[in-house]
Amino acid sequence: MSFETTVTRAWQRQAGWLWLLLPISWLYGIISMLRRQAYKLGLLKSYRAPVPVMVIGNISVGGSGKTPLIIALVNKLQGEGIKVGVISRGYGGDTNKMPSLVSADSLPSVVGDEPCLIVNTTNVPMAVCPNRKQAITTLLDKHPDLQLVIADDGLQHYALQRDIEWIVVDASRGFGNEQLLPTGFLREPISRLKGATVIYHEKLSADLDDSNDGNSQYQSSRLTMHLTAENMQRLWQPTVVAPQVTDVQIISIKASADAPSTGKKVHAVSGIGYPQRFFDTLSSLGFDVIGHAYPDHHDFSLAELLQYHDYPIVITSKDAVKIKALLFEYTAKQPLNDDCENLVNRLWVLLVTAALSDSCYDALQQQLQTLGIRTAPI
User: Quick check: is 169 in a domain?
Assistant: First the structure.
């Protein structure tokens, strides 16, 4: 078990030994505060992009539903005719090849898994680089007509000035022991939420979805989102084309194999920031879940996946882009053996989408209008 996994599990159960790390958290908090103040006072230089920038991030470590939110926002803005682009640090990619534009045939090992997912889902113009200024410059050089740039997970990157700031809070996780790293999983104190546009990621429930509920007026004013499971699809489609691979072997797909049915056992394999949410979603859909959690952005191997046999394997869309690239790379060199072909026929992806409350889109429309970016009414 990796150190990252050990600490993540300790955060989840709020292990007592974490309090031994409190002095480190105090030091981390002081350094973070001084750094932010230095940017605010102009002691450290920050970059103002030539187009409005919207930063979407969180104050906690781990998944909060940020990537599905960005995909939903991009789809909405594109539908309104707004020319939007996205930048990211490209975590998990090859920094030696950055800044880099992301395309449909980009590899997760080069640009990161989340950028691949975002572009493959929305076809949005996107660039990656740890230096956000370089990412924006690269993006605008190729797409000079962009009206808005969304910065993925750049909340603490104060070297980048921003016009809009959305902070995603996972209501189901909360703030744990409310301590900063490493005692808790907060990157910044809860006070950071004051005055910010906060989007609460909540579980979909009958209360939230019932327009006749007595709290409907309260709910309609809250800025909320929830994830909705769409359907299950094969990881490997017969028509799929391998990116940057010219000699890929054809993997046989069992036409008679159906998607996993509710009530049956499935292996849920996840390398996202908060795997338990994925496991809980599958359980709520009626599956008997055998959960296998890996660190966020984990690079899977065939050996790891082959150990999960007897039952279908269900993965997230984020993990799917890496596992698909793994299969492309493998089949370009050699044909799959029987065990690997059996694995491919048992790999399924659970597709989810983010549903935002109308108040989120109302807030976005007001913020964009303030910047002179006009959207059509909902």
Answer: yes
Q: Helix, strand, coil proportions of the chain in percent (round to 5)?
A: 40, 20, 40
Does residue 192 share a domain with residue 323?
Answer: no
Q: Which residue has the tokens 């394999």?
A: 269
Is residue 218 included in any domain, yes or no?
no
What is the model's pTM?
0.91
- What's the DSSP call for residue 172? T
Which residues are within 8 A (CB) of 56 and not within 5 positions of it... i.e. 6 or more apart?
A: 66, 69, 70, 73, 150, 151, 152, 153, 154, 155, 166, 168
Q: What is the pLDDT of residues 239-261, one digit of tens each?
A: 544 455 444 444 555 544 688 99
Number of domains in the chain: 2
Dist. CA 193–CA 176, nearest whole Å: 16
Could you tell me the residue range of the domain that residue 121 belongs to?
A: 45-204+357-370
Question: Token pair for residue 313?
Answer: 């394997």
Q: Do 167 and 126 share a domain, yes or no?
A: yes
pLDDT tens profile 40-54: 999 999 999 999 999
The CATH number of residue 173's host domain is 3.40.50.300
Amino acid at 376: A
